[in-house]
Amino acid sequence: MGLIKVGVIGIGNMGGSHILQLDKGYINGATLTAVCDRNDHRIEWVKNNTTGEVQLFQDEEAFLNESGIDAVIIATPHYTHPEVAIKAFARGMHVLVEKPAGVYTKSVLEMNAAAKASGKVFGIVYNQRTNPLYQKIRELIQSGELGEIKRTNWIVTDWYRSQSYYDSNEWRATWKGEGGGVLLNQAPHQLDLWQWTTGLMPKYIQAFCSVGKYHDIEVEDDVTAYVEYENGATGVFITSTGEAPGTNRFEIVGDRGKIVVENEELVFYRLTQSEREFNASYKGSFGQPECWKVDIPIKGENSDHLGIIQNWTDAILKGTPLLAPGEEGVKALEISNAIYLSSWLNQKVELPINAELYYQKLQEKIKHSSLSRTGNAVR
Amino acid sequence: MGLIKVGVIGIGNMGGSHILQLDKGYINGATLTAVCDRNDHRIEWVKNNTTGEVQLFQDEEAFLNESGIDAVIIATPHYTHPEVAIKAFARGMHVLVEKPAGVYTKSVLEMNAAAKASGKVFGIVYNQRTNPLYQKIRELIQSGELGEIKRTNWIVTDWYRSQSYYDSNEWRATWKGEGGGVLLNQAPHQLDLWQWTTGLMPKYIQAFCSVGKYHDIEVEDDVTAYVEYENGATGVFITSTGEAPGTNRFEIVGDRGKIVVENEELVFYRLTQSEREFNASYKGSFGQPECWKVDIPIKGENSDHLGIIQNWTDAILKGTPLLAPGEEGVKALEISNAIYLSSWLNQKVELPINAELYYQKLQEKIKHSSLSRTGNAVR
């Protein structure tokens, strides 16, 4: 099999980055064949910044029907990910979609069904999954080293944004333009890693979102979510764009110890026996299981976006397992949708949420959105 | 004025410790004059472990009426703190009460009223307030260094207890015997420091308590509480007796930076300007205020229980301001009562809570308590 002919649709920050990596030949087995964006300036940018022969499209249908590409990277606005992916699958293309998978699970589930029916390779740009630190956490949990999980806690408030950031584009931080705030635009990676490393999806969520707390925006910029898992474990996820300096600290407590990640350092507190066993057998007053503080080396580079695109290309060419299967994009989205729904209904919600109810509630938000235009700025 | 004649009522772990410190002459200006406990063994213990002349009582009324003491330290079971204190104030005594102030705010408010009416010196054994680390946090906040508070987060799960601990006394971890679990018995110090250092009481609380999650007990051993403050700030408090090794990490985010305490170390991340001002004036895309990581020396010793008793004695003798005024005991209790009430009602509750409603709900718990005896084990 020769080079995979790759097209990129949507030339914003991320699409532009993918275009450059492909054009420079950084991805083995793939060649940049076509790009698509409605915006003249962005097409001009591609002309001026790429060296290879690239077909330029401003019309989505023409891009999909006439470019002759085998595979497409979708970096359009969040809302449009599912519809573009479904069209691509219908034409027999492989798909790599930017995060978040979409804005509401209803459409993302349709995208997943289309992917499955097509049999094509479907990936999502969860580039933090290439970070060996999070891979190691996942390994410690999957291998049973940490034992049954009791509690998770992620404070990820290092997503500081100023008002000027939000003011830089009118679609930013609007229900109509982006479909959410910090949960949908800044924190999707951590929402994904939260469930990916632990292997646990919340069963119930009760969440508290503050809308426009630190900025003049119509969506949330501050969130605290409490979750309960099927096995009885609990968790908390806190994120904000209004704190400086932010925190990024992830703690996972298990029956055999505790993992703490802060400042990109992993510490594993390892019990020499199961706490549940200790609890059942100990006869003294104030004892607790022996605990070792273990330094675990983190090997390997964080290959990031490049790693995700290469892995997706290898999956197409050689059947390499995907690090971030596209179908898994719905998980982080399910969590963020549930957080919104809980906050709107002011009650605990069960996962999976009622996707239709969420869609309807979202339409109400969109109807009253301050974004007046019908179009999308970056497509 | 000569030596203050001090009596101690309730000779459990804490009462015994106070008796020894007084008997050894560690408290300037105070002398141990009388002790009281129903239990023969405990009275015997005092005989064998003290050197001074101490009157021994097994009857509370006789102790209060006949001992001739000026001041009393109350270390009886939690439930009885207010009733004993009220009797002492009625006899013109100064009072130092062990934590928690009581079990429900209704009776503690009555105790506070009696204290006020008596004009006597009323302290509470919040001995963690003598820790210079928490004093420094309070100072950084009171002086405005941290700026307006945005968020607080305390994970204090280093209260590990085994089943054998709970089994050691039948009154432990029962609604009838202790009136609560980890919130009332292990975490009151942190609940107090949480409000004392920040100067903020929550306005609303929504909490999630797990009853007997890790132990065969009828009260909670795992808690996550979400709070909202009057100024819009939010907070989370997590505590448990089922995790090993536990965490003790307190984070306070303000407009001018962030304070983090973990492993008894204080780090102050200090912004060179207010975040709110930066947000309003910055014109770029991804900038944030300059931040300095500041090491602040923690001076002085943690005088602990000794410091509290000395300070209370000095307040009686010289009018020294109390580090832990007894009237403030209701604050941490108000928080823990609100956490229980929110958990029982499965809804957000406003503070101050309805003290009468809480009292009634608690009576239902007591009615179904597994503790069958009518008496109290340690009094």
What does this structure look like?
The structure is a homodimer of 379-residue chains. Chain A is an alpha/beta fold. The first copy, chain A, has two domains: 145 residues, Rossmann fold (3-Layer(aba) Sandwich); 206 residues, 2-Layer Sandwich (Dihydrodipicolinate Reductase, domain 2). Helices cover 36% and strands 23% of the residues of chain A. The first copy, chain A, is built from 13 helices and 15 strands. In chain A, the strands form two sheets. In chain A, strands 14-13-12-11-7-10-9-8-15 form a nine-stranded mixed β-sheet. In chain A, strands 3-2-1-4-5-6 form a six-stranded parallel β-sheet, sandwiched between helices. In chain A, helix 9 crosses helix 12. The longest helix of chain A is centred in the C-terminal third of the chain and has 17 residues. The radius of gyration of chain A is 22 Å and the shape is globular. At the A-B interface, strand 7, helix 7, strand 8, strand 9 and strand 10 of A face strand 7, helix 7, strand 8, strand 9 and strand 10 of B.
Give a brief outline of the structure.
The structure is a homodimer of 379-residue chains. Chain A is of the alpha/beta class and 379 residues long.
Question: What is the secondary structure topology, with strand pairs?
Answer:
The structure is a homodimer of 379-residue chains.
Chain A: E1 4-9, H1 13-23, E2 30-36, H2 40-49, E3 55-57, H3 60-66, E4 71-74, H4 81-90, E5 94-97, H5 105-118, E6 122-124, H6 132-142, E7 149-156, H7 163-167, H8 182-185, H9 188-198, E8 202-211, E9 220-229, E10 234-240, E11 248-254, E12 257-262, E13 265-271, H10 275-281, E14 291-295, H11 304-318, H12 329-345, E15 349-350, H13 355-367
Parallel strand pairs in A: 1-2, 1-4, 2-3, 4-5, 5-6, 7-10
Antiparallel strand pairs in A: 7-11, 8-9, 8-15, 9-10, 11-12, 12-13, 13-14
Helix pairs in contact in A: 4-5, 5-12, 6-9, 9-12
